[in-house]
Write a structure and sequence with these properties.
The complex is a heterodimer. Chain A is an alpha+beta fold. Chain A has ten helices and 20 strands. Chain A starts with a helix and ends with a strand. Among the domains of chain B are: 90 residues, PmbA/TldD superfamily (PmbA/TldD fold, 2-Layer Sandwich), CATH 3.30.2290; 230 residues, no CATH class. The chains are: A alpha+beta, B alpha+beta. The interface between A and B is large, with 81 and 83 residues.
Chain lengths: 450, 468
């Protein structure tokens, strides 16, 4: 694709729609995204599913008399665009006015290197080979790895164009890629699953051998897993598990949740909300971050926001609306899921900062406890109340060493207690998509088993 | 029809030029409306048009899939050729396409099309629900109400001559109430929806729904943390069907079975549950969220008995998994949108009602946990381990419903739990949800009668003092 040309074409389109909507007496913002997707699924060294796709869409936000209306379309014909404008205007008329609704003006954006030409240039056969290598490595790791649940490579190449009636007219383009494997290890009647995954802005950084072996290791070491007794004990989360918990915590750090009384952190800025080893950061322009972009979904420059520093809550994530409501500046976190949604407060590259200890040291210091490697039912955790109770699998630790695999148990608690009970943070910060965490040790948790 | 039948024929032929043995075009035009109220404000009035086409070419067991927003004959021809080449193979397979138009096994009429209802009326409904929820108690600190409707027009055509046009209309209404006593926050959630028009709200009052959600949020403030460990669990019919969806539904999807990723693989004809258990998947239930006339491959929706009196009878199939076994699809080939290839999915899945009086089941339980409302869940189909969230649960003490508890998850193993069931009630309660699999979300209904499981792991909280 000729990204520069496409970007110009879509920016023209966005500006045209904004101009038409403005003529009807409204403030307007048009967001266009377009891209090409490739997905390869391999099983038993054969390509099982190959998906090639192209898509584009436009989302139009209208501000009329302090009221917001929104409509989107994938049809760029003149009549469909006119219809979208009419729809957005009609929708705005039904919304409640709010003087904090506003659109940002033009600003300076950082230059970020988001496009690795290799992602586009590398031939399909070589990407298929990458996926196959992942599967071979997983199988070779241990003969008990017998079934491939899925083994896939994907990449996305995209163009974003954004224009509004306040003078914002900007574009960027980028690409990212990822690979993952889910395998099953079997021993007699027993089956256990494991996964490995990575996402990157650079194709060369995807290491198929490492991903394959990780998937195999995670499955194989769970063979023979049993329940443990119901008890309280120290618990260690591996980076994947901690990143999963961070995703549940994230909405509570968004200013809209706070302003609506739905956040555990409401009214706690400047107070201790976590143990002193906890630092939580959102960085929209992090080098190499898959969520990095020069500007957010409404044209505000991205930035780095320290949310929790040494356990003290420093602030929240904002878009222009929540910022206007509080008289602060947007942190550049007006996130769009796609052209189909308005910019809501959301995270970019969101992570728990690395500590000093190696994961091995964190384990060595535990006399009896649970090392958690996967969670079942994470989406049932309640980000508003903070209550969670999830199924877990992992390894039982005794005398600082893995003793036996564990399954069929649940851990429960509240996110606030969890953050306060983190006693040590590992040095192995790992990103899963745009959320990252290192290994962490929690001093004490409820484990439900036999 | 989103494209003329003759054009579809040309596109299907082009897709098979490379040597594929099956081609399919799925055209979709989806119009949605979402109205959201939070903070006492109508924050969100969104509408949209998403249209596109997905083309699939099969060669043996391999799939090549592509999609585009461009719904023109030329655009689709180009995509079809590209996919056909990628599918590989030798020679030009030129199918003789004779259109057949399958008849559905059931039919329904939308009484009130949502696109003919003025937006004001939808907004008013949302506002009424918001006010009702807030009026329940002073401790209600936030209410979020959302209304959504979807009109999905599809045209499905394949190289075997299936040609189906269909329109699916769905409405949904969700209330989320947040209560706080200044120290803790709790939530209450209720939703209704179905393959139904605006008449949904004649049969179900959104105001009642809002009150129910708000009352639960307030009640949960008084709840004590759930206990931890193994105990008898009674699941009320009104609790919804998440358990059956997770404990066995996913494991009976033919793709997972064929890939040996299901604990139920190779168990057809065997006892996999208590003789009291019959499990059915039924796309033909009027108005339910998982219902449809045709699945996303043009196969008529049907009722499939999966487990009869504890014996595994059948799995759920789509076209590809059925073809692998030389049998017919069970009409379970579904996809989230034109962006996704169809895979075997549940529709409305339920445990058939039994003979016991639901009240008697509780009365005859000495000690345990009564699940009055289930939340979400997840399963590892490979070994059958599952969890689901208890949104509202009570301790049972000597056959009486005791104190309310919060923060519980039930953990179990599908086949183990289903074999243990010792009581099945005569009631049946439905819930609805969006089921996720392979990154695709589809609307489903789940239901079950009141059932009792002698022993499950409850993932609750242990007091600091108790240290066994």
């Amino acid at each position: 694709m000729d990204y520069e040309n496409l970007a110009r074409k879509y920016l023209d389109l966005a500006q045209l729609v904004v101009e038409k909507a403005t003529q009807k007496g409204a403030l307007a913002e048009a967001f266009v995204s377009a891209g090409e997707n490739l997905d390869i699924e391999v099983r038993e060294q054969e390509v099982e599913v190959l998906t090639l796709a192209q898509e584009s869409g436009l989302g139009l936000r209208i501000l009329w008399d302090g009221r917001v209306g929104f409509a989107y379309t994938t049809d760029f014909s003149a009549s469909a665009l006119d219809e979208t404008i009419e729809q957005a205007l009609a929708n705005a008329r039904r919304a409640t006015p709010d003087e904090c609704n506003c659109l940002p003006g033009p600003q300076e954006y950082p230059y970020l290197d988001l496009f690795d030409p290799e992602i586009e240039a590398r031939p399909l056969t070589s990407k298929i080979e990458l996926a196959k290598e992942m599967e071979r490595e997983a199988r070779a790791f241990d003969p008990r790895v017998k079934i491939t649940e899925s083994c896939s490579y994907f990449d996305r190449r995209y163009v974003i164009a954004l224009a509004n009636s306040q003078g914002v007219a900007a574009t960027y383009w980028g690409a990212y890629c990822g690979a993952s494997i889910f395998v099953v290890a079997t021993d007699g009647e027993e089956s256990q699953t494991g996964f490995g995954m990575a996402t990157s802005l650079r194709l060369a950084e995807l290491d198929p051998a490492k991903i394959g072996r990780e998937g195999a290791l995670r499955a194989v070491r769970l063979l023979g897993a049993k329940r443990v007794n119901t008890q309280r004990a120290p618990v260690i989360f591996d980076p994947y598990v901690m990143a999963s918990f961070l995703r549940v915590i994230a909405p509570a750090l968004a200013a809209d949740s706070v302003q609506k009384g739905k956040s555990l952190f409401r009214g706690k800025v400047g107070q201790r909300v976590a143990s002193p080893v906890v630092h939580i950061i959102d960085d929209g322009r992090m080098p190499g971050g898959v969520a990095s972009a020069p500007f957010d979904g409404e044209g505000v420059a991205t930035g780095k926001t320290v949310l929790v520093e040494e356990g003290i809550l420093r602030g929240f994530l904002h878009n222009t609306y929540t910022a206007a409501k509080e008289g602060v500046r947007s942190t550049g976190n007006g996130a769009r899921g796609s052209f189909k949604s308005t910019p809501e407060v959301g995270t970019t590259n969101f992570y728990l900062a690395a500590g000093r200890c190696s994961p091995e040291e964190l384990i060595k210091e535990v006399p009896r406890g649970l090392y958690v490697t996967d969670v079942l039912g994470m989406h049932t955790a309640n980000p508003i109340s903070g209550d969670f109770s999830v199924g877990v699998v992992g390894m039982w630790i005794e005398g600082g060493e893995f003793k036996a695999p564990v399954r069929g148990v649940a851990i429960a608690g509240n996110l606030i207690n969890l953050l306060n009970s983190i006693e040590a943070v590992g040095n192995d910060l790992t990103f899963y998509g745009s959320t990252g965490a290192p290994t962490v040790r929690i001093s004490n948790m409820s484990i439900s088993g036999m | 029809m989103l494209l003329a039948p003759d054009d579809l024929k040309v596109i299907l032929e082009a897709a098979l030029e490379g040597g594929g043995d099956f081609a399919e075009v799925f055209l979709e035009r989806r119009q949605t409306t979402v109205i959201g109220c939070e903070d006492n404000k109508i924050e969100r009035v969104h509408s949209g048009l998403d249209q596109g086409a997905g083309i699939r070419v099969l060669k043996g067991e391999d799939t090549v899939y592509g999609y585009t927003n461009e719904l023109t004959r030329d655009g689709l021809l180009e995509l079809a050729r590209k996919l056909g080449r990628a599918a590989g193979g030798k020679g030009n397979n030129k199918p003789e396409i004779e259109w057949q138009r399958p008849k559905p096994n059931w039919d329904f009429q939308v009484k009130k099309r949502p696109d003919e209802i003025p937006v004001e009326e939808k907004v008013a409904l949302v506002q009424r629900a918001n006010e009702a929820a807030r009026a329940v108690d002073q401790r209600i600190v936030q209410v979020s109400v959302s209304y959504g409707d979807i009109i999905q027009e599809v045209t499905i055509a394949n190289s075997e001559g299936i040609l189906v046009e269909d329109e699916r209309v769905r409405c949904r209404f969700v209330v989320n109430a947040v209560a706080s006593d200044g120290k803790i926050i709790q939530t209450g959630y209720e939703s209704i929806g179905g393959l139904i028009g605006f008449e949904l709200f004649e049969e179900n009052d959104p105001v009642e729904l809002a009150r129910k959600a708000a009352e639960r949020a307030v009640r949960m403030l008084e709840a004590r943390p759930a206990p931890a460990g193994r105990m008898t669990v009674v699941m009320a019919g009104e609790a919804g069907g998440t358990m059956i969806h997770e404990a066995c539904g996913h494991g009976l999807e033919a793709d997972l079975v064929q890939k040996k990723l299901s604990v139920y693989a190779g168990k057809k004809g065997q006892q996999v549950a208590s003789p009291l258990i019959t499990v059915i998947d039924d796309a033909t239930l009027p108005g339910k969220y998982g219902s449809f006339r045709f699945d996303d491959e043009g196969q008529p929706g049907q009722r499939t008995v999966l487990i009869k009196d504890g014996i595994l009878v059948d799995y759920m199939y789509d076209y590809l998994t059925a073809r692998k076994e030389g049998r017919r699809s069970t009409g379970n080939g579904r996809r989230e949108s034109y962006r996704d290839r169809p895979i075997p999915r549940m529709t409305n899945t339920f445990i058939a009602p039994g003979k016991d009086d639901p009240q008697a089941i509780i009365r005859e339980t000495k000690k345990g946990l009564l699940v009055k409302r289930m939340g979400g869940g997840q399963v590892n189909t490979t070994n059958g381990d599952f969890v689901f969230d208890v949104a509202e649960g009570y301790l049972i003490e000597n056959g009486e419903i005791g104190p309310l508890v919060r923060g519980a998850t039930l953990t179990g193993n599908g086949p183990e739990v289903l074999k243990m069931v010792d009581r099945v009630g005569s009631d049946l309660g439905f819930s609805l949800g969006t089921c996720g699999k392979d990154g695709q979300g589809v609307p489903v209904g789940d239901a079950q009668p009141t059932i009792r499981i002698p022993e499950m792991v409850v993932g609750g909280i242990l007091d600091e003092e108790e240290n066994p």
